[in-house]
Amino acid sequence: MKQVSAVKSSDREVKYLSLEVPRKILLAFLFLLLFLIPALSYAGDGLRKANSPDYWIGKLKNPDKLVLTPEEIAIFNRITIENIDQMAELSSMPEVISGERVFEWLWDILGYPAALYDSAGQKVQEGFFNDLAWNMYLDGIAKEIEVRFGVIVERADVRGLPTEESLRTGSGRGFDTLQYSSIYPPEKVALLHTSRDGRWGFFQTRDLRGWIRMDKVAFGERDDVLDEPGDFLVVTGSKVKVYGDYGLKEEAGEVAMSGVLALAGARKGRSPWAVKFPVRGEDGALVWTEAYISPRAGVHRGYLPYTRRNIIRQAFKMLGEEYGWGGREGLRDCSLFIQDLFATVGLRLPRNSRQQGSIGDVRAHLDEYGTREDIAMALREADPGVTLLTLNGHVMLHIGISKGKPFVIHQIFAYADRGGVKRIGRVAVTGLELGGRSPLGPMKKRLRSVNRVTIPAHYGARAGIDKEEVI
Asked: CA 242 → CA 219, 269, 272, 279, distances in Å?
């Protein structure tokens, strides 16, 4: 696939550079330009305009039509949670959970490949895993466990084992296999078990289970933690700063796209938004404080309406952002990119790409049913802005057709090409011919599933919804 030309000189033309401009400013400008070029260089077929959401929205017949109403979104979420083991509705969790069940979850986690490598490229020895197993405190799991509820107070990694050590396959060249995800305040969590040293907790989050550092969580009474705000903001920017003072000088934290913040009071004019923000008090107790968000920040009062326009616009807000496996260091991978943008309309999607390809209205899926011909037909009939396409280990958002070819926006690390692996490492717009010169073939020929993020067609009658209104 041809790469779109980078930035034209006429687009970012600098006719004169005064000799008085400090050298540092010039270098900073050049650095920024180098960052922007990759974000604009993978649209393919010379379609520089493909990097604009307006180009794709302009192709839609009715971009502002509701795909699902709030009531239908609630049905979608219920169906998804019921079918994905790792997901949970925390408000429905019991006060006490079976210790045997928690033991099984923890035991399953220990099934890692025999050959793993640390960040220095050294093979991890058996003693390392023995120490981790001891710290997991499996012998300390009670027959019945009283669930404790808490709130994340700063960005926290969700880990497969209670350690911050990165473990990788392939002599240390792969991704950190222990990095499950990353979550931001004020996400709610349920503590199921604590490590022997007390530094780690095994938590159930909205989307998955894993180990989180205890100092990232403030604990409170169930009702105080799980109470749903009646009036709230949803973060619609990629990330938003939260401040501890009205003058927006003292940074209190950061919240990523899809984060929900309860409003703390009425807002006057263009004054900062006042929100409730969690702080870890004495002995780890939850304390709600009043914090502030700039009136210019990317937030919306309540969830965005679920329309194709809104989904495409949300996706393009992350265009060019760097790739980060498992959300490490506050970055996103392919499935977190998809999860965050759909969550701005209130939709709950699973955390990993394989599961994301199995939810909603599945049009074709090679792992469950269907053929390559079914995949091709489903792709031809795909609805831009609501359709997910998956490969092995990768998920993309279909955004439309240009010059007869389907295009996607996705957080892509790399792709196979004739000369080897080509790294992109950021959110990009590409055609599905990408990788066509490699022995594996183009992405279009390697699709595993095509599904629409809507209520499954076979649930229509049971849910009391007209099928034609669901699409």
From this structure: 21, 19, 10, 12
- Asked whether 448 and 394 are in contact (CB, 8 A), the reply is no
What are the sequence ranges of the domains in the chain?
A: 48-68+306-470, 85-226, 232-301
Strand pairing partners for 280? 286
DSSP string for residues in 168-229: BSTTTTS-BTTEEEEE-TT-EEEEEEE-TTSSEEEEE-SS-EEEEEGGGEEEE-HHHHHPPP
Q: Please give the C-alpha separations between residue 396 and each of 268, 388, 392, in angstroms, as whole numbers.
A: 40, 6, 11
Whether the CB-CB separation of 334 and 343 falls below 8 Å is answered with: no
Sheet holding 179-183, edge to edge: 179-183, 156-159, 209-213, 200-204, 188-194, 148-152, 217-220
Output the CA torsion 357→363→366→370 (10° steps): 170
In the β-sheet with 286-293, what is the strand arrangement from edge to edge?
Answer: 251-256, 239-243, 286-293, 273-280
**CA 159 – CA 327 distance, rounded (Å):** 11
CATH number, span 232-301: 2.30.30
Q: Contact, 226 vs 287, CB < 8 A?
A: no
Tens digit of each residue's pLDDT (9 = 90 or more) over 364-423 = 999 877 899 999 999 999 999 999 999 999 999 999 999 999 999 999 999 988 888 999
Q: Is 409 in a helix, a strand, or coil?
A: strand
Q: 76 with 68: CB under 8 angstroms?
A: yes
Digit-coded pLDDT (tens) for 34-80: 333 333 345 554 568 999 999 999 999 999 999 999 999 999 999 99
Under 8 Å between Cβ of 263 and 232: yes
Cβ atoms of 297 and 237 within 8 Å: the answer is yes
E strand intervals along 316-370: 361-365
Using DSSP's 3-state secondary structure scheme, residue 101 falls into: helix
- Return the CATH architecture of domain 48-68+306-470: Alpha-Beta Complex (3.90)
> What single DSSP character describes residue 4?
P
Q: Which pair of structure tokens corresponds to residue 208?
A: 């998955």
- The secondary structure of residue 411, as a DSSP letter, is E
As a whole number of angstroms, the distance between CA 462 and CA 464 comes to: 5
